[in-house]
Amino acid sequence: xxxxxxxxxxxxxxxxxxxxxxxxxxxxxxxxxxxxxxxxxxxxxxxxxxxxxxxxxxxxxxxxxxxxxxxxxxxxxxxxxxxxxxxxxxxxxxxxxxxxxxxxxxxxxxxxxxxxxxxxxxxxxxxxxxxxxxxxxxxxxxxxxxxxxxxxxxxxxxxxxxxxxxxxxxxxxxxxxxxxxxxxxxxxxxxxxxxxxxxxxxxxxxxxxxxxxxxxxxxxxxxxxxxxxxxxxxxxxxxxxxxxxxxxxxxxxxxxxxxxxxxxxxxxxxxxxxxxxxxxxxxxxxxxxxxxxxxxxxxxxxxxxxxxxxxxxxxxxxxxxxxxxxxxxxxxxxxxxxxxxxxxxxxxxxxxxxxxxxxxxxxxxxxxxxxxxxxxxxxxxxxxxxxxxxxxxxxxxxxxxxxxxxxxxxxxxxxxxxxxxxxxx
Length: 425
Prior knowledge:
Blueprint: H1 45-56, E1 62-69, E2 72-80, E3 96-97, H2 102-115, E4 137-141, E5 147-150, H3 158-161, H4 177-184, H5 193-200, H6 218-230, H7 234-246, E6 267-270, E7 273-276, E8 297-298, H8 300-311, E9 315-316, E10 319-320, H9 324-330, E11 344-346, E12 349-351, E13 355-357, E14 362-364, H10 367-370, E15 378-382, E16 388-392, E17 397-402, H11 411-422
Antiparallel strand pairs: 1-2, 1-17, 3-8, 4-5, 6-7, 9-10, 11-12, 13-14, 14-15, 15-16, 16-17
């Protein structure tokens, strides 16, 4: 799920009162190469205070977080436990459900193929998914209440697919005819990417391509396109071109038997108490349908390596994943002005002024307008389980936080703390 700047970040400003003056130490953090992951850094106070309060108030079981600035770690912390029972402490090796933080990884996979000339932003999606040739747009209901469907004025483009403006929806966040049809199709019960595409091909578009921004299955369609272009499964391509080269050894679409003890439990608040959420366990082997929009399991360390690659213009530790121009393309807004004039989006997934949308992630184009304490050009996204990250090129910062609770609201507070103590100091 996206970085919901209204509902999921609410209340974070009040959390700034928890910042401790002890965190303002100017002692430089060690170079990454010399970082002992078993030892906390000296500048954890304010961030830990914010997160520890959530744990003490039983709104989170545990939180793992890592921050870098100028290739030095300024923060690393593992607080609380992997589950509400408190039996297993969080650690830097704890594994989390990334949910929609899968989406930026899929964007990088797409940009790898873009560099190879395999697609261009102006390509119609139907170049890769001919099953979508006969998609219809839902236009409303007639006098008898029957749905009115007609072909779109033009086919949606790849750029629109990467920016949630291609006409698709998710089905979870509205009650329109299109939403109800998406829910009834049980898309995420698909047995393969091809099965998923066949199901989507029977559904209406929710709006004319290019006329709205609506959070959607677009990144799952991207995953299917990656599989068709490469002839590999999405997970195999990501392993070969992203995870393996970056040393992301704990990131994949399934949970190995030897890693089960490191898996954090999904939680929720029920009747005022933090409890385990009734969430299906991760698959124990590669699933038939590896979704480009969700499904990855990862650690804070692994995801920080991915984010640092973006911050370093596509290269990390001598390994180049993308060209600098491709990273800039991914992390720049691609929305027309008419779609970002004021609050835009749908329902829970509205963006406030100053936020726009790049490829598979939000971009802060005006920090002052958004009242967001990050640099202009910051690229960010989060996941339904409370995970979040941002890449701030202006301030040379990466921050990653991992937790497992639906409807978490800590990102804005973490941004404020980091800015106050590690940028303005």
